[in-house]
Amino acid sequence: MRLALQSQVLDYVVIVRCQGRIIAGDEVHLLQQEVDKVIHFKKRIVLHLADVDYIDSAGLGALVRIFSGLRVDGGGLKLCRLSPHVMKVLQTTQLHTIIPTYETEQEAVDAFFMRQYPAGKESHAHRTPVVCIDSSADVLAYLNALLTQAGYEVFTTRQINDAKTLVNVIQPRVVIYGPSAQKNKSAIERISQSVPHSQALFLPEDFSTSEASEAGIELVSRVRTAAAN
């Protein structure tokens, strides 16, 4: 079912009720357009997801990217009334610990006005570094959130031609190439020669459209295996 959106502007918050699928392509673009439209009114957004029956990796990445963008811009994103599928995906990928979720719209709205105490900064000194390369901002947002939650220190870039400099500085244990990055064979070869100790992982062509929790579990497993070699 094509994504349908209905927005309600309240005094301090915008509630966006979603129905259908949040997937790569038109649906993600539609959600982003709606967010771009409503942030002209308010920068605090609640997404009502009770009627979202499917979300893929790109869709989940879009939620993470929107959440991060609003937070940087002084606003926020909260999710409520998660459908069983969305709840499963968020719990499986542990992204429910990043994007706040609530049972009702009212609880999500009220949470914007509760005092938030910042958590202590976690040391990244012992985290295994991973570099992710792909042209899709949504895929990179998903990878960043997923692997950070799995305990890795994650660095991302959309420009494979600039990635050699990044990996030289970071010296990652694992380099992940998205579908778009895999087309540049010569750049991959240069990166491999630059950090010969790193393990290269290649995302499948359909990664962005795969069911998000299954794709996430498989990728984390592959990264753990590669990092251990």
Give a structural overview.
By secondary structure, the protein is α/β, with parallel strands linked by helices. The protein folds into 2 domains: 4-111, 2-Layer Sandwich (Transcription Regulator spoIIAA), CATH 3.30.750; 128-228, Response regulator (Rossmann fold, 3-Layer(aba) Sandwich). 41% of the residues lie in helices and 24% in strands. The chain contains 8 helices and 9 strands. The strands form 2 sheets. Strands 1-2-3-4-5 form a 5-stranded mixed β-sheet. The relative contact order is 0.13. Residues 117-124 have low confidence and may be disordered.
Radius of gyration: 18 Å
Strand order of the largest sheet: 1-2-3-4-5
Mean of all residue-level pLDDT scores = 90
User: Tell me about the biggest sheet?
Assistant: 5 strands, mixed
Quickly count the helices: 8
CATH topology of the largest domain: Transcription Regulator spoIIAA
